[in-house]
Amino acid sequence: MELLPLWLCLGFHFLAVDWRDRSGTATAASQGGCKLVGGAADCRGQSLASVPSSLPPHARMLILDANPLKTLWNHSLQPYSLLESLSLHSCHLERISHGAFQEQGLLRSLVLGDNCLSENYKETAAALHALPGLRRLDLSGNSLTEDMAALMLQNLSSLQSVSLARNTIMRLDDSVFEGLERLRELDLQRNYIFEIEGGAFDGLTELRHLNLAFNNLPCIVDFGLTQLRLLNVSYNVLEWFLATGGEAAFELETLDLSHNQLLFFPLLPQYSKLHTLLLRDNNMGFYRDLYNTSSPREMVAQFLLVDGNVTNITTVNLWEEFSSSDLADLRFLDMSQNQFQYLPDGFLRKMPSLSHLNLNQNCLMTLHIREHEPPGALTELDLSHNQLSELHLAPGLASCLGSLRLFNLSSNQLLGVPPGLFANARNITTLDVSHNQISLCPLSAASDRVGPPSCVDFRNMASLRSLSLEGCGLGALPDCPFQGTSLTYLDLSSNWGVLNGSLAPLRDVAPMLQVLSLRNMGLHSSFMALDFSGFGNLRDLDLSGNCLTTFPRFGGSLALETLDLRRNSLTALPQKAVSEQLSRGLRTIYLSQNPYDCCGVDGWGALQHGQTVADWALVTCNLSSKIIRVTELPGGVPRDCKWEQLDLGLLYLVLILPSCLTLLVACTVIVLTFKKPLLQVIKSRCHWSSVY
């Protein structure tokens, strides 16, 4: 059986007209809840049980969406014989009388989506047959089967755009779209189509856009719709896609086969205009280098195609399925989330116009960079989330990756890159090497290193503006690691000890940086050099997940807008520092997940009222060994904090004074009790004479 399909969310744009009055000026009015603008009447969501009859008879556009009409009677639209566009979306329509459109000979666009037209589909079909000039028809979401759809489309030869999305169509044959020679756009997405008979689309000679996404098609073989430009067969269960062999010229420009179960690279037409190929989320791989295919019989597969009484056999070379495809105009290729372990020699050479290549989330272990592979026009290359351990650079290449602007190598197993790789990428602006166990070359290292790569050098990459080195296990940064770059974005997160207590390694790029991420780096407030005064253009600073106990230092003309201090060891935030940041334009600050002391949060009202603290509802503090949300603290100073805020000298005086008074009283009592014996002892020792 021949199975066919396509992509590109076809937005069916129904006829919209800018109606104006006789003077040429658009007018606006309201009548019975309907908005009138020139020749257009908008009655959406007015709870109308019938079509209003008091609207201007010259109306050319009528919108009745979301009204519980249920039935469209023969007389409902009689007053509006000049209508060119009618929308009845979500009107609970179960019946359309056979003469409902008898007076609408000028109607060009009709929207009947999300109704219940399957209830009386024969009568609805009879009503539609009175519209010989209809160009656009939306029957989506009506629970229509293929037989119902065929009856409704019968004799509507003027149609150019049809939507049958979200129905219950299961199979297609040549009778469904018979007589629609002018049809250019067909939307069949979100049905239950599992079979398309050969010739089902043969009569649609003008068809350009075909959407078969979200169906149950198992394979597409002998694909021969040469007139198509956009084909979407994403979200099916395809295991094979084979275009018709031969020298037929295809107009195909965009092909979406993503989110299927393809096992091999699709067999594409030998001659086409394909510029966008989407193969994301399949099970594809290249296998020639993984198996011993010395016998020619082991390198082919044969397909038996049965169409009526005709049987055809198609032979396909499994290992070089791309070799006969026309990829000369291909500009965008997405092969992400597949099972590719390698790229065959010459694969990328067939795509000289390729500008975007996405290979993330595959099983690539090595990548060979040769002349014209990748092609010189490539501007974006994503190799993230693979198993790359080596990049091989062919010797003598002076201009490889010369046009590359974005290069993503994150989440691989790289220990370094070939010497000179980045030096030749003179236009690169964004580079992501995060989650690779690399090291940075010291300043004294020779630029022409030989042998296996052991470090990476970013110096003198003048075009580089964004660099991510998160989770690379970096040691202390060498001197001037980013000298000669134009960095405005730098991520050094999750590299403990990389700054070694100083921001000095960043001095070359400090004046240019706008976004700096230093989270989870073990920073603490004892770093005397943790001063961001020299980062005059810094807009976004992430210091979360560190060990800071005090607010970082800023100065000068800092233009900071966003500051993240979550998951640190802050107990209080100095009010002076906060007010200074607010005055400099700080818009957002994150402060939660810190062990604040409730007695030290007084005065943060300015932050709360100014909505500067984005996570204010999550900020908690410790009060008498209890964790309390700052927003739930009672007004004023908590009672448990009042003693702590008293003057210490006065507190000591209050504590010492009772003891002193007690001691004085005790001494007085002792003196008075032993006064006479004590005087006698003194006199006897001093030989004083007593006077009697």
UniProtKB/TrEMBL annotation:
It is a single-pass type I membrane protein. The chain crosses the membrane at residues 650-674. InterPro entries: Leu-rich_rpt, Leu-rich_rpt_typical-subtyp, LRR_dom_sf, SLRP. GO terms for molecular function: receptor ligand inhibitor activity; transforming growth factor beta binding. Its main location: membrane. Residues 1-19 form the signal peptide. Keywords: Cell membrane, Disulfide bond, Endoplasmic reticulum, Glycoprotein, Growth factor binding, Leucine-rich repeat, Membrane, Repeat, Signal, Transmembrane, Transmembrane helix. Key regulator of transforming growth factor beta-1 (TGFB1) specifically required for microglia function in the nervous system. Required for activation of latent TGF-beta-1 in macrophages and microglia: associates specifically via disulfide bonds with the Latency-associated peptide (LAP), which is the regulatory chain of TGFB1, and regulates integrin-dependent activation of TGF-beta-1. This is Transforming growth factor beta activator LRRC33. The lineage of its organism: Eukaryota, Metazoa, Chordata, Craniata, Vertebrata.
